[in-house]
Design a protein that fits this description.
alpha/beta, Aspartate Aminotransferase, domain 2, Aspartate Aminotransferase, domain 1, 2 domains, 7-stranded mixed beta sheet, 12 helices, about 15% strand, globular, binds pyridoxal-5'-phosphate
Length: about 400
Amino acid sequence: MKTSKKKRITIGTVNIGERARELVEDAFLRNRISSGRYVRRFEELLEEFHGVKCAVAVSSGTDADTIALSALKEDGVNEGDEVIMPALNFISVANSAIHAHLKPVFVDVDRKTFNIDPDLIEEKITDRTRVLIPTHLFGKPVDMKRVLDIAEENDLFVVEDACEALGSRYKGELLGTFGIFGTFSFYVAHIITTGEGGAIITGDNRYDGILRSLRSHGRACACKVCQLNVDSGECPYRFDVEDGDLEDKRFYFLRIGYSAKMNEIEAALGIEQMEKIEEVITKRNENLTYLSGILEDLGEYMVMMRQEAHEFISPLCMPMVIREDVPIERADIVNYLEERGVETRPTFGSIPTQHPAYRFLGYEYGSFPNAEWIGRKGFYVGIHQNIDKGDLEYIAECIHDFFKLKGLR
Ligand SMILES: Cc1ncc(COP(=O)(O)O)c(C=O)c1O
């Protein structure tokens, strides 16, 4: 019996070292804890890593998606326009379209990649379609060549949701750098974590001030770091407004924004992890390769995430989906693993047909067979940077034992 194993193999991990503690302490000593110089430093590290001009840190990945979509409203996207996204997705991607007053339109996914099926995108395009969100689910890159070609032919903006894919590459290029915007989440289950947090990156500097304004209520301020929240506590631009009755830029609003700033404590955690990002990504990738190898013989029973030659995966997790003709219920294997200390999560499900929140759109069950199958039969386990080879072997042993118990080995 393996129930004696004390260690729990978790989906996510939190690493808070000396560096982060020092930065947090410094923020406390200076009495500067809301968005300030450390948030900006974290943004600079994201900019340097991705080779882009602009990164804007926000309070969650959901805010990153919502603000990215809202920014496009300043570039011709109108209320009620349609946003194409995969049916299999974390719910917040659809929610962000709703929050931005746009309409999510769903496309089924590919059974091998778990990502949006490019062959099915064009049939969903209408004269209201303006944006395409190819979510890189579990860290696996979407076929960006196909997506970018479709976007170009149909004049669509691409907002790449890379919330689960910091550090993954498609044909050598980092995910998040293909679209007009790339979005990231730093929630605890993700590649790096700030507790809660997110970011938007873009190579188009025109959006820098718009994104900063949108994350801060729509203020007229467009500074990369708020001057009031650095040591001087004074802002030389504050009374620059020359319009009507109002003169204080911080209390003069250009657009309807959000309250979505990251704070200094979160940024301190992010700085430490971005300084070690290559190590984190390498370890996650090695774990994926190792676990894929020791589970390969179960390919006849389950579809698992695979890294192809043209990609490098910085994985969120290891997803596994029980094949339809295999007489096993997900609940059985998940319970078996949980009882043995291996934490699991379900693979999200088809947003339009498996989540009551989206029933109002009127899609019928069966419209997204692949997403629904993954929603019904899939689960994932952790393979993060604090999981070692022994842990992976333990996970594989438990899974093998389960199949043996069911008479399938
Ligand atoms: C693909 C994807 N997009 C967006 C989000 C939203 O991120 P957050 O939880 O930071 O709001 C998540 C969260 O898990 C996600 O998995």
